[in-house]
């Protein structure tokens, strides 16, 4: 993605206004760098469904009970007990559903905390579940070891001691390394070539939506013909490749409308070089409301 493209995101200190209706979560002095909490402690305060947004931090959810539905780009994922959901910073996500009995852990962190004298890691390479093309769901095979490390991290967060912050990256690294050893991806498994190409197309849309403007450009990037791409997407999703491209543009537009002060004209140009009137019509046809109404809602 081009470096001069604005990629808006929410910092942890901005979460409360976006996530909760007037409620404020108890936070530590290092909340913007690391935080872990119990899902059952905050789920009843969430404003659902949570609109598409980007965050400045990586995060994961580990569910011990109930069900949660979250998105990564254009794909929805159902999180069930003993499963993790991972998302890297700057990726679009939304929260669709949290069951009344949901329990587990939520954790966010800045990857920069691993710039530690005792650690030498390549974050995305070492932990592939955080890659934009990675499978975000993981079913654990040894829950006891995972829970031990989560409890340690929870305790360190509760202590809220800056002089102990240096141990948090070490415990977090231990947890993520343990999960890598238990790697058993679940959820949206790739069953055939069409499904595989469809997922690659969705990943490409998430990564290059500002750089590539047509299905033909994406097909060229994926080294297939536009016709073959259309057939595979239609077989897998029932939608056309162009329809998914429009879905991604709408998703980006929603984030820009809510998380930036860009004018509607600037957003129209950024996501597809639309004229403002054409963009407003496109947005209304796909969402049922105007861009201005969405921004104000």
The termini sit apart by 30 Å
Helical/strand content category: alpha+beta
Mean pLDDT, to the nearest integer, reads 90
CATH architecture of the largest domain: Sandwich
How big is the Rg? 20 Å
pLDDT < 50 runs, ≥5 residues:
1-6
Q: How many domains make up the coordinates? A: 2
Count of DSSP E strands? 9
Let me know the CATH homologous superfamily of the largest domain: Regulatory protein AraC
Which CATH first-tier class of the largest domain would you pick?
Answer: Mainly Beta
Give me the number of helical elements: 12
* The CATH topology of the largest domain: Jelly Rolls
Biggest sheet: strands, sense, closure?
A: 5 strands, antiparallel
InterPro entries: Homeodomain-like_sf (IPR009057), HTH_AraC (IPR018060)
Pfam families: HTH_18
GO molecular function: DNA-binding transcription factor activity; sequence-specific DNA binding
Domain HTH araC/xylS-type: 199-297
List keywords for this structure.
single chain; 297 residues; alpha+beta; Arc Repressor Mutant, subunit A; 4-stranded antiparallel sheet; 16% strand; globular; transcription; sequence-specific DNA binding; transcription regulation
